[in-house]
Each structure stands twice: as C-alpha cells, then as structure tokens.
Design goal:
Helices cover about 55% and strands about 5% of the residues. It is mainly alpha-helical. The chain has a four-stranded mixed beta sheet with strand order 2-1-3-4, with helices on one face.
Length: about 290
C-alpha cells in the first residue's frame, strides 16, 4: 500500500490516536518525531495551514488533523474496521467524536486557565499582602522562560506550580467561579458519554473502534490535566461505566505500548503551556 510516515510528538494525544489506529490495522510506518519549539521544514511543508501535528504521509501525500487521518486510515486499510458499517452508526460515531473534541477539555482548556493566571499575576504584583504568592509566581515564570528549546521544566517545580495555582484561585473569587463553571460544563459532557458507554465494553462494542480511539486519551491524559488544573473530573463514583471503559482501554494491546510515561507528560504540558504564554505575552518582561 506504499510508504507510510507519521510526523508526531509522543506526548500529544491526537498523535497517539494515529499510532493506535495504525497498529490496530497492522500498518507499518516510520515515526518522525517533531520538535514543536523548532518546527521542521517537513512539518511546515506537509501542513502549511495549521502547522501542527499529527500529519500522516502516505505515498508522499499529506493528511492533517487527527479525525480526518483516522477516517483515511480506515478507508485505506480495510482490515479491522474502525467505523461501523451501518451508515447511521457511522454518523453517530462521527457526531460523538466531534462532541469529545469540542466539549471535553483538552490541552487548550489548561492553556486558557493558566493564561488567566498570568493576568492575575500582574494584579498580584501591585498587592503587598500577596507578596508570598507573587514571589512563587515570579520564580516559576522565570524558570520556564526558555521556551525556544526543548528543555522542559524540572519535576521539582511541580509542587511550587500547584501551590501557586491554589494561591491565586484563593486570592480572587471571580476566577474561582469561572473555573467552577468550566468544571461543571465538563462534568455535564462526561455524563453524556457515560450514558453512551453503559452496558458496553467499548464504544465500538466488543472491539476497539473509531470512537474508542478518539476518546482514548481520557483514560490517561485527562488524569494529568486534572492534576495540573487542580480538578477532579473522571472518577469511578460519578462515572463508573466511563471509568471502567478507560481502565479496559488503557490495558489493551497495542494501546498501552504507545502511552508515554506520566512524568514526561507532565513536563510536556507545562512546557507547552508556558511556550504558548510566552508567545502571547512576548512583550512582558519580569523584573
């Protein structure tokens, strides 16, 4: 079927989606690791519109965006179909896939929260009563200023990061309310998915399918996001069926072979958060 290459980064769940699909299909591929802080000419040429990973290269043709890539893989390699054969069921799978990407919090949700935190930092700087929180934030922002390289923030900074987040949310009630609303909206979205998975092993039935691959990041990545955002979203008591599905999914071959270590995921998300912040706040300098 021709040469297959995947431009990706290991900690990105849209990229891992594509690895899951290729492995389930038994497709051999070359993995091209991308440095998002220094994007390669190959990535920029292959995805000139969004300049993002993942990008699938098949016979020198490029396909971008994870959902589009998944459908391309399913239509190109017929063995072990991912999407249902029934047109109605296929339409439903596509609907819920878009629902997951639009409604369940992804990395951009964490970006938004922490970018708000930086604006709060500017307020804190003018309030002496919050000097302790200010000191912690200043130290942390400076420690992550080297966004132009692949150097990630060290793990020993995680505790300080979490203390800063807690301190800031306690310092301003309005932001706390905004965060609470975001969490409530996410819980409402997860409740819809809980109903969809009830009585099933996987969204696709007895075998992993398209929707399982789309939602699969929640089985591991969401837990990391919960830690960084000081949130509790997907727990066994509130969403027993969804939680059980996640445990089943993450232990299935070849799924678990593609999941990056938790520590590197934490580093990646913090690096990505600060990389985006420094791009948006490039004219702000800390004294």
């Amino acid at each position: 079927m021709g040469e297959v290459k995947l431009i990706a980064t290991p900690q990105s769940f849209p990229c891992v989606r594509i690895e899951w699909a290729l492995r389930i299909k038994g497709v051999e591929y070359e993995y091209i690791k991308e440095d998002l802080a220094n994007k390669s000419p190959l990535l920029l040429q292959s995805n000139p519109v969004h300049k993002k990973v993942p990008v699938l290269l098949h016979n020198d043709k490029s396909i971008a965006e994870s959902l589009a890539i998944l459908e391309y893989i399913d239509e190109t390699w017929k063995e072990n179909p991912l999407l249902p054969l029934d047109p109605y069921e296929r339409a439903l799978a596509r609907f819920w896939a878009k629902f997951i990407d639009d409604k369940v919090p992804t990395r951009n949700t964490i970006y938004m929260i922490l970018l708000l935190l930086f604006s709060i930092y500017l307020f804190i700087c003018s309030n002496s009563c919050l000097v302790i929180v200010r000191s912690k934030l200043t130290t942390l922002w400076k420690s992550t200023a080297q966004f132009g390289s692949t150097k990630y923030i060290k793990l020993y900074d995680i505790a300080s990061w979490k203390q800063c987040v807690l301190g800031v949310w306690e310092a301003t009630m309005a932001q706390g309310e905004a965060k609470g609303k975001a969490v409530d909206a996410t819980l409402e979205s997860l409740a819809f998915l809980e109903k969809q998975i009830q009585g099933k092993k996987y969204f696709g039935g007895e075998k992993i399918g398209y929707l399982d691959i789309v939602a699969g990041w929640m089985s591991h990545w969401l837990n990391v996001m919960e830690e960084l955002g000081e949130m509790e979203l997907l727990n066994a008591e509130r969403f027993p069926s969804l939680h059980e599905w996640g445990q089943n999914f993450i232990q299935t071959l070849p799924v678990k072979d593609c999941i990056p270590p938790r520590e590197t995921m934490i580093e990646y998300f913090i690096f990505a958060i600060n990389y985006k912040r420094f791009k948006q706040e490039s004219r702000v300098y800390l004294s």
